[in-house]
Amino acid sequence: MTINSSKHRARKDQLPILTTQPMVESNLTASVRRGAIWSAGATIFLRLGNILLMAVVARIVSPEELGIFALAVTVHAVVVTMAELGVASAIARSDLDVDKIAPTIVTISVVGSLVLAVPMAVFADQLAQFVGNEDAGNALRILSIGVALIGPLAVPGALLQREFRQKIHFWASAASFIPGSATLIVLSILGDGTEAFAWSRIVGQLVTAGVILACSSRLYLPALNKSLLRPLLAFGLPLSAANLLSQVLLNADYVFIGQLLPAADLGIYFLAFGIAMWPTAVIGSMLNSVVLPAVSGVLRDGGDVAVAVVQGARTISLVVFPLGAFLFTFADQLILTIYGPAWVSAGPVLSILAAYGVLFVFGLFMANIMIAMGKTVILVGVQVAALAALIPALWTGITLGGLVGAAIAHIVVIGAVTSPVYLLGLRRSTSVRLSVLFKAIRAPALSAGITAIIAWIITLPLRGTGLSILCGGFVGLVVYTMLNRQALANLLPGTAGDLLRGPAFRSTSWLALWRKRL
Q1: Which of 26, 115, 407, 486 has CA atoms 20 to 30 A from the CA of 476?
Q2: What does the pLDDT read at residue 462?
Q3: Is 147 in contact with 113 (CB distance < 8 Å)?
Q4: Is residue 249 over pLDDT 90?
């Protein structure tokens, strides 16, 4: 590799650009595909594992204990977003020279995480009172350990993202799942369920940290290059501010509910919201791991970012729309079957929040693109506008409609404020035509709706039983696959894609007409 040394040398207020021979497009595509598959595999593994784990734990802990933990994890989520000041994302940009910027980023990340972790531990009781329940204090002290761990892991984790080595995250997740789960179950049985949730997170994070550090291709020691501070902070601080506002948006409802409703109601809502974010869990980590380095690679190699955006949106829509449709259609049955009758009131909330989960994924996709384009200031504007609308909407919704009102408030804000502003920022950042973008996601959206209606009708005789979920999921999978056979065949690698192109899934005349119309 060579660094620009003459007229192309980076100015003092710029990050050092890496100059390489243009990467062959097929190599970049292969790296993106490989990274996406491993990231999706890790996420699906964790999601399925957490579903099974919560199915057990939900019969041990009470909604009130989960509600108290929700308040603690809300504070933790907000603090974590500021731990490395957003600078670690610069490592994942493949157009920047990592050897130049990494030591300074290590310093910023370690110092920033410690500066936040120590006050969080010291003032845990006061923070717990502020968010609505003093019983969350001990959990906050435990979670402050996790904040301190963010700094040392920021650069190694971003390096794995830059190198598309998401398989390491998969093995780290797999290695941490068993000790973390065992900690949660044992401590829940022995004592406080709230603290059990907190300790399980720390145990899992420690195991994950060990795997990531052991597998990191390079380890950098802290150092400080003063000439890089300004450009790194100019890149990172807007991103950190946007992430902070994003977490406030995601967690403001917990604070409102904690203040206005009993802790048990918050536990119910916390469960419903977590399930609604399954589409984000399935594809969100893949977006965070792959989109940023992939788009920066397209930029570096002189590719067409607008085309990449449209292709990415089409791929995402093929996954998130059927997931959202499934959650909306079978919300009540899902809650009752997996988590038990104590949590059944989460069903109506989940059916509304299912749409929020879908829209949130697309927002995450657009945010990562703007980060790759270096337009982090736009993200701050998006979050400020959304927060200004959400706070009064949440208060009104909870006051008038309780938990269902809070869910409706989220849908209104993300649909009427957040998504339009994101689209405007995307249009200005990439010059993508919105009409082309909407056309790319139209077929998956319509086919997911049709699939949900068919699955709902077929499973009507089975309502109230676990068979409705199994039967509905199977019918939905078959119908949706038939409606989107070619698109899914192009998305899936190897044997799976070849199977969809084979005679077993050959199009009938009505399917051919469907695809022609779209």
Answers
A1: 407
A2: 83
A3: yes
A4: no
Check: CB of residue 487 under 8 Å from CB of residue 444: yes
Distances (CA, A) of 477 to 321, 373, 459, 469: 12, 36, 14, 12
As a whole number of angstroms, the distance between CA 278 and CA 320 comes to 9
- 3-state DSSP assignment of residue 17: strand
Q: What is the pLDDT of residue 10?
A: 44
Q: Specify the amino acid at residue 59.
A: R
Give the number of other CB atoms < 10 A from CB of residue 101.
23
Mean pLDDT, residues 488-510 taken together: 55
What secondary structure does DSSP assign to 131-194, as a single string? HT-GGGHHHHHHHHHHHHHHHHHHHHHHHHHHTT-HHHHHHHHHHHHHHHHHHHHHHHHHS-HH
Identity of residue 246: S
| Cβ atoms of 154 and 222 closer than 8 Å | no
E-assigned strands of 188-230?
Answer: none
Q: Other CB atoms closer than 10 Å to residue 194's CB: what's the count?
A: 29
pTM attached to this predicted model:
0.71
- pLDDT tens digits along 422-469: 888 888 878 888 888 899 889 999 999 999 999 999 998 887 777 888
Single out the residue of 254, 259, 468 nearest to residue 349, CA to CA: 254
Highest mean pLDDT pick, 173-177, 247-251, 330-334: 330-334
Q: How far apart are CA 518 and CA 126, in angstroms?
A: 56
pLDDT at 11: 47
- Between CA 129 and CA 121 the distance in angstroms is 14
12/234 Cα distance (integer angstroms): 12
Are residues 69 and 131 in contact, defined by beta-carbon separation less than 8 angstroms?
no
Residues 6+ apart with CB under 8 A from 215: 160, 165, 168, 171, 172
Question: Measuring CA to CA, which residue among 159, 215, 173, 165 is closest to residue 38?
Answer: 165
pLDDT of residue 300 exceeding 80: no
Q: Which amino acid is at 274?
A: G
Q: Which amino acid is at 296?
A: S
Instruction: Find how far residue 390's CA is from the centre of its chain.
Output: 20
Cβ neighbours of residue 269 under 8 Å, at least 6 residues apart? 70, 253, 254, 257, 346, 349, 403, 406
**DSSP assignment string, 251-275:** HHHHHHHHHHS-HHHHHHHHHHHHH
Q: Nearest to residue 148, comparing CAs of 208, 79, 198?
A: 79
